[in-house]
Every structure is written in C-alpha cells, then in structure tokens.
Design brief:
The complex is a heterodimer of chains A (333) and B (443).
Chain A (H helix, E strand, L loop, with lengths): L18 H23 L1 H25 L10 H11 L7 H16 L12 H12 L1 H4 L2 E2 L13 E2 L2 H10 L4 H7 L3 H6 L11 H13 L6 H20 L7 H6 L3 H8 L10 H21 L6 H18 L13
Antiparallel strand pairs in A: 1-2
Chain B lengths: L22 E2 L5 E5 L9 E2 L6 E2 L4 E4 L8 E2 L4 E10 L5 E9 L22 H10 L12 H5 L9 E5 L9 H8 L1 H15 L4 E6 L3 H11 L5 E6 L8 H9 L14 E5 H12 L6 E7 L7 E6 L4 H7 L7 E6 L6 E3 L12 E6 L16 H5 L6 H9 L3 H6 L10 H5 L6 H21 L1
Helix pairs in contact in B: 1-4, 3-5, 4-7, 10-13
The chains are: A mainly alpha (333), B alpha/beta (443).
Chain lengths: 333, 443
C-alpha cells in the first residue's frame, strides 16, 4: 500500500475570506469617520471611542471566559466593531461610566444572552445606544459644538443638533426659512462641521467608508441605497407638499445619522435580511420609519429606532421572502 | 460578453499548464480498467484470466441502454479480474492487464489523416458511440448515445459544445481545442447529424482567447457552427448555467436540457466522437492535466485508460515531499484520492497536487449571516438554511426549499468566511431527500 493522502469532500479550495478579515475591513471603513470626529471634537472623541472599544472587548472576554465558560473569540473583531459603532452613536462629551454601562448592555444583553456572534436579533450597538438614551436622556442629548482640539471633553460647550433646532423651532411655530439660517450649510454638514453624534457628522468620511466596503465586497449596495433613496423620495414629497413646514431632502440626509445608519448600522450582517429582495424591503422600511419619527414623532432623530424596529422583522422576512430560484419560471428565449 | 446572471464566483484561475503542448505518456507496465466508468449500469466482463487482448478490443460489454462498452487500452495478457478502489473511494470490479507491446485491433484507422466526410447515418452514429464507449468527458461521464437519442415528444434545435473548462487549474480541453480543433469541429458536425439539426454553439471562456481565435478561423469552413466567447465565471461549465449564458433559456427545476430543446456535449467528447465515427477508434485514451504549484514539471498528457496515477505524477517530476492531497478533477468539484494506485478513467480531466499547507480546511465558526452563500448560489438557493435543515434532520422542509436542485458546485463552501462545511451537509440532506422520494414512489 502506498502513502495515504488527505480525503475530504469538494470544494478543495477556499476564498481565504474570514470573519476576522471582514470585521477588520469594517474597522478600516470606519477610520475616516473616526479621524474627522477627532478633527472636529478633539480628544473627547478619542476618549469616548477608546473607553467604548476597550469595555466592549473586556465584557465579551469576561462573559465568554467566566460566565459561559466557552472558547473566547474576542479576537474575531466583532466586539471591536460593536465598540466603535457604539461610540459613533453617542455625543463626544459622554461621561465614562455611562459608556461602560452602554457597552455592558450592548455586549452582555444584546449579544451574549442570545448566544453570541451570529445569534442576536437586534443590533448590539443600537440596543446599547437606545438604552443610554432612555436612561440618561440629558447626557445623551447634550451635543458639543465642534471646535477642533479646543472642544474639550465633559467641559465642552454644547448646543442643539441641526435636527433638534428644526424640530423644536417648528413646534414653537417659527418659520422654516428662519430656522435654516441657524443651522450649518449643506456643505458644512457634508464635511462634518456640525453638532451630533461622534461618528455621524461627516457625510464625506462615511461615503469613503461606503465605497471601501463595496470595493472589498463586504456589503452590497441594496440596504444603504434603498434607505437613502426612500428617505430622499419621502422627504421630497413632504417638502414639495408644504415647503414652509418640511425641510428639504438634502437636510434630512445630511443632518443626523442617516448615512451612519444606512452604511454601517443597518448593514450589520447578523441583524439584516439574507437576500437582496428582502434587503431592499428592509431598507425601504427603515427609510419610511426614520422620516415618520423625525416628522411626526417625539424625537428629532429616528434612525436608531427605525433600524431596531426593522431588525424585529428580519426573521419573518428571511422566512417568507425567498431569492429567485433558477429554473422557477419556464423561460424560453 | 455573455455569461449567466445568478450567483457565481471567481476563484484564482491557476491555469499553470495552458501553454504546455500535450505529450503522449509512455505505456505503463500494467493497467487496471474499471468496468464502471460511466453513469448507468456497469459493463459485463467478457474476458477471462489469461486471455490475450489487443488495444481497442472490447473487454466488457454494455448492459442495457444506459451503459457503454469498455475496451482494452493496451495489448497484453489479462492478469486478473479483481476489485479496485476507484476515484469515488468505493471498490469496484476492474480488469487487470499486463502490457505486452502495443498491438491494435485491425478495424482502427491509426493514420493521421483528418476525414471530414461523414458517411454514417444518424442511427449508425448513435450506435457507434455506445459501441465505442463514448461518455461525457467533462467529468459526469453520462453515456453520449443516450443524450443523442432524443425521446419522442421532445425536440432539439441546438447543440451546445462545452469548451468552458471553468474549473481552476484544468487545461485538458483548452489544449485539445488548440491542437485538435479541426477534429473537434468534424466531431461537432457528426453530433449535429446524429441529432438531425443544423446549428451548434461552442461556449469558451474568455481566458482561452487563443482557442477562441483558432476555432473561429477553422469554423468558417464548417456550416452552422458558431464559436461564442463567454465572460469568465465559475460554474459556467455546468450544463444549466452554460445554456442560460448562451441562449437565455432556463432549464426548469428537475428537468433536462432537452426540455428547452438543447443537447450539451463536452469539447473533449466531440473529439472522442470524431475518433469513434471517422477512425473507428474506441475511447481508450484521453488528455489529462497533471498540475499543482509544488510539482516540478506540470503538463498535459495523452494517457491510456487504466494507467495508474502514480506514472503520471512520476512523468511530471515526481511526487513532492509535502503533498497533502491529490485531487482527481478540478479543485471545486473534484474528488480527493486516497493513494496514487488509482487508475486514470474516462471522466478524469486532471490530477492536482496540493501541498499539506493547502490540504486542510479552516475550522468551522459560527454563521455570521453575511448572506454571501445566498448571493453566490447559481441556483438561487439558501445554502445556510439548507445546512441548518440537514443538521437538524428537517428533511421535508429541506425538500420544500429545493435542496435537490443543488448541483454541488461548491461556491457556497468556497465563499463562506466562517469556513462552514455548507456543501457537506447539503449533500447529506440531498441524498436523504432523494431516498425519501424513492420510497414514496415505491409505496
């Protein structure tokens, strides 16, 4: 008998793509937004991000090692992404203890209680963010005014976000044309020179990340494009119907967390649908809910809630919306 | 440029031997010729131990319609009729022959002349294919005469020749199209005559531009044969994907190409048909690519059926020390061989050697629901779901989710970033569902 060789079923080669590489790809795509945030908000942004990332990694390690007594997979990059995204969704002057509590909710409650990576129905970073928003409404809605490295940390001068200025103003009966003069111009908003969550301010940085994610084939266009297009179309209709009461679509897309949500939060693998048809419906749902909350709801911003609500429909969508099967319809060309 | 739309992947091509002229492999000391080298009933052995046989002589007769003759690929004495482990890993009967000289049966025309004039009638061509042991040489080894016999009630208007060779590494068909282009085109004309049709398309992927140019030039003097370049994408060589790419016709789930009026044959098969019909030469040898990044001298060889794989490896520079895995066929759909004693068979298009560093799978991790498996599936299935259903034994549900449509191209397992053995479990589910369906019919 000659030498025996390895036997396995085909395929015998692999793309060499791994979970870890995908997660670190997302981290790279988030870097431009992190840099612009540090540029506008100074070391506060750095402190918040570091605390969030470190506490997410530590909580994941502690829970896997001592509570679940399972193999520790903290190096797979998923907790790192959650930590970054959690930081991106809060103001840059958020006190350390609140960030740590938010991280515990993200990793401990939203991710690990459901069985860890791959099993959580809701986006962990958003669960953490919404928990903090409800528990610490004052700290979570005091937004530093961007002043570069002079912004400071908890001592930062704060002001309202463009979305809040418009929302409050309209409620008090001020004309929209006056309110527009109080907020940054579209080009300032595009470059990130406005108040808001740490990672959501610079459209340009988020779009660079989007292009990178598409080029690396980490995500597909379906979810981000359907969310942004839906918000664009819906707010255009409202704007055309009553320009005195409703802001223009450019304002809705640039101010607030639409781009961060569409590109990085809604595309989270675990909590988004598994085929293009369902992904487009999911994106349209997020777009509609975001506008409804912003225009008619109590909060000035609705992206987080919209994504979490649509997360809940994902299992249902995966069950009933199927990809087009080959050979389903008889086509004779 | 045309291609199929749904799913597909682009693995690294690694066509190391694309420029290597086909060489004739010297005769081995002995051959082992399995009696089942095709889909369908194994042939019945008609020689005995001690018999003298000539090259091209029938040693096992076809048994029923879906079966073909098996011929001796060498001349010599039958040493024994015994079982042998074949490429599938199962044991089957084989005829062992000790080689003495190379004396051919008289009926074979061994000259180099290319005969373009087709004398045989449609029916004669079809029976000649079965007598000469012609099977699909792309790897599936389905008897060719069965595909040429269009059932009553069905109609064929187009012959498609598969020169796609979408598997990485393999170049056997590529070389054959370059070196035996005219013979292949005559073979295509023969197949068209057998099918009584006037139109054929040859699909070739655009990474073989030399073959496309060469065949286009030759095809000008043949009637009704069109050479069609295709955009490179795996698995374009799959019958249904090739038909879709060339014609836009979609073979319905569970049906055959003939249901969309098409018959598909491999380019290598067209060459074998030419030899069988014009030269009366049975299928006793084929081009095999022997390749691998660690191999000293990879190449393409014309090999007699039954030659041990070890001789091929020796000719290509010997077995590298760190070889971990040997694949018969392509890296995507080929079979891993347990040792090198296994004989070359009709369906073996290539032998690939992988170093041990490339022969282990990555460890399986939790599914992150990235949906990459769904997006690459050329049949629009949901591999992650089929794997889960098979794991949990929910076979009825797997059947509803069309698990039997899976053609096992491996794109899902190839792509999965978590390294999950998707196709292993889909195979388990698929075979269980097929068994369940058979039992239903019996009841």
């Amino acid at each position: 008998m000659s030498t025996l060789f390895n036997i396995s079923l085909s395929p015998h080669s692999h793309s060499q793509e791994t979970t870890k590489k995908l997660m670190f790809g997302v981290v790279i795509a988030l870097l431009p937004a992190l840099f612009t945030s540090i540029f506008y908000f100074g070391y506060g942004a750095l402190i918040v991000t570091s605390v969030s990332v470190i506490s997410c990694l530590v909580f994941e390690y502690l829970i896997q090692r001592f509570l679940l007594k399972k193999p520790v997979s903290v190096t797979d990059g998923s907790a790192l992404v959650t930590g970054l995204l959690l930081a991106f969704n809060v103001p840059s002057n958020l006190p350390v203890h609140i960030i740590i509590i938010g991280s515990l909710v993200s990793i401990g409650i939203a991710k690990m209680t459901f069985g860890g990576l791959g099993n959580n129905p809701f986006n962990p970073a958003l669960v953490g963010r919404v928990f903090m928003l409800i528990s610490f409404p004052v700290q979570m809605t005091s937004w530093p005014v961007p002043a570069g490295f002079n912004t400071g940390y908890t001592d930062a001068v704060t002001g309202a976000t463009p979305l809040a200025i418009v929302k409050e103003g309209l409620k008090n009966g001020e004309p929209l044309s006056d309110l527009i003069t109080q907020i940054p111009t579209p080009s300032q908003m595009f470059l990130g020179n406005m108040g808001g969550s740490l990672g959501e301010i610079a459209a340009i940085a988020l779009l660079i990340g989007f292009v990178y994610l598409l080029m690396r084939k980490i995500i597909t266009w379906h979810i981000p494009v359907s969310i942004i297009a839906t918000i664009g179309i819906f707010t255009t209709i409202l704007w055309l119907a009553n320009p005195a009461k409703n802001a223009d679509p450019m304002f809705h897309i640039l101010a607030g967390g639409v781009l961060l949500g569409a590109v990085f939060m809604a595309t989270d693998y675990v909590t988004s649908p598994m085929n293009p048809k369902a992904q487009i419906i999911y994106g349209i749902g997020i777009g509609i809910l975001t506008v409804v909350i912003r225009v008619w709801g109590a909060y000035p911003e609705g992206v987080s809630f919209a994504i979490l609500i649509m997360n809940a429909f994902v299992p249902l969508m995966n069950r009933y919306i199927k990809p087009g099967r080959f050979g389903e319809e008889v086509k004779n060309g | 440029m045309k291609t199929f739309q749904k799913g597909g992947i682009h693995p690294p091509e690694n066509k190391l031997t694309a420029a290597k002229q086909t060489e004739v492999l010297p005769l081995p000391v002995s051959v082992a010729i399995p009696v089942s080298q095709h889909i369908g009933a194994p042939a019945t052995v008609i020689v005995n131990k001690g018999d003298s046989v000539k090259t091209g002589q029938v040693i096992a007769g076809s048994k029923g319609f879906v079966s073909v003759n098996i011929h001796s690929s060498v001349s010599g004495k039958v040493n024994k009729i015994d079982s042998i482990v074949d490429t599938t890993g199962y044991k089957q009967t084989a005829v062992f022959i000790d080689v003495e000289g190379d004396e051919w049966v008289d009926s074979v025309d061994r000259s180099d002349d290319i005969i373009t004039d087709i004398k045989l009638s449609s029916e004669e061509i079809i029976s000649r294919c079965q007598e000469s042991g012609i099977v699909g040489l792309g790897g599936a080894t389905f008897p060719s005469h069965v595909k040429l016999s269009v059932p009553s009630g069905k109609r064929c208007d187009l012959l498609i020749i598969n020169g796609v060779e979408c598997e990485p590494y393999l170049t056997a068909d590529h070389r054959l199209m370059l070196e035996k282009g005219k013979e292949i085109l005559v073979g295509i004309s023969i197949l068209m005559k057998a099918l009584k049709i006037k139109r054929a398309q040859v699909g070739i992927e655009n990474n073989k531009t030399d073959a496309i140019v060469h065949l286009k030039k030759l095809a000008a003097s043949f009637e009704g044969i069109e050479i069609c370049p295709l955009r490179v994408k795996y698995p374009q060589g799959a019958e249904k994907q090739l038909i879709k790419a060339l014609t836009g016709r979609e073979v319905p789930s569970g049906r055959l190409p003939i249901d969309v009026n098409v018959v598909v044959h491999n380019a290598g098969t067209a060459f074998a048909v030419y030899e069988a019909v014009q030269k009366n030469k049975p299928l006793i040898e084929r081009v095999v690519t022997i390749t691998g990044k660690t191999l000293a001298n990879p190449g393409n060889y014309l090999v007699r059926i039954g030659t041990p794989v070890s001789l091929l490896i020796e000719k290509a520079g010997g077995l590298p020390d760190d070889t971990g895995k040997i694949i018969s066929g392509g890296p995507m759909m080929g079979k891993a061989l347990i040792n090198t004693d296994i004989p070359v068979v009709k369906g073996m298009s290539g032998i690939i050697l992988f170093p041990s560093s490339e022969s282990d799978r990555m460890p399986s991790q939790p599914c992150i629901r990235c949906a990459k498996c769904v997006s690459v599936c050329p049949l629009g299935l949901e591999p992650y779901l089929l794997m889960l259903l098979a794991q949990k034994g929910l076979f009825e549900k797997a059947e509803e989710e069309r698990i039997t449509d899976c053609m096992e191209c491996g794109s899902c397992s190839y792509t999965c970033p978590a390294g999950r053995p998707l196709l292993d479990y889909i195979r388990l589910g698929k075979s269980t569902v097929i068994k369940m369906a058979r039992e239903r019919v019996v009841k």
